[in-house]
Amino acid sequence: MNQTIQRFGYPATMIAEYRHWVVLLRPAQPTLGSLVLAAKSDAIAFAELSTAAFAELAAIISDIETALRAHVQYQKINYLMLMMADPNVHFHVIPRYEGERTAEGVSVPDKGWPKPPALGEAIELSADQIATLVRWLKQGWPKGS
């Protein structure tokens, strides 16, 4: 796996693996259920991805939104492609909601609602919280992965 995937805690944070992508729990949670959707290739520009990687995105995004809708009951969802500190192609997937969501003993308010997500105010998860939330999200993950 590339350095960006490793930087986001792989393999401990892995929720789903696809042919060209992985879905990881974001170790710093600006909202509950925040994820990283990362390309497995070494591409550092979106246009460098293969046609197959682009094609696979439709099914993965469907899986992400199905799972997060069930688990978090988000009101909006943001896909952020920042790639400043972590060079390989990836998106931060941030479910958005008014107020706070709680699961498995972890409570996370959406401090940016209804404006852009407050990434700088994210809750840093412990290793135990990561393991618990990964299990929680995997339980209802669509079978597409």
Architecture blueprint of SSEs:
Elements: H1 3-7, E1 14-17, E2 21-25, E3 28-29, E4 35-39, H2 51-72, E5 76-80, E6 90-96, E7 100-103, E8 106-109, E9 123-124, H3 127-139
Antiparallel strand pairs: 1-2, 2-4, 3-9, 4-6, 5-6, 7-8
Which descriptors apply to this entry?
145 residues, alpha+beta, five-stranded antiparallel beta sheet, globular
Number of helices: 3
Q: pLDDT under 50 segments (min length 5)?
A: none
Bin the strand percentage.
25-35%
The overall strand count is 9
For the residues shown, what is the average pLDDT?
A: 97
- Using the CA coordinates, give the radius of gyration: 14 Å
Helix content: 25-40%
Rounded to the nearest angstrom, the distance between the terminal CA atoms is: 17 Å
Structural classification: alpha+beta
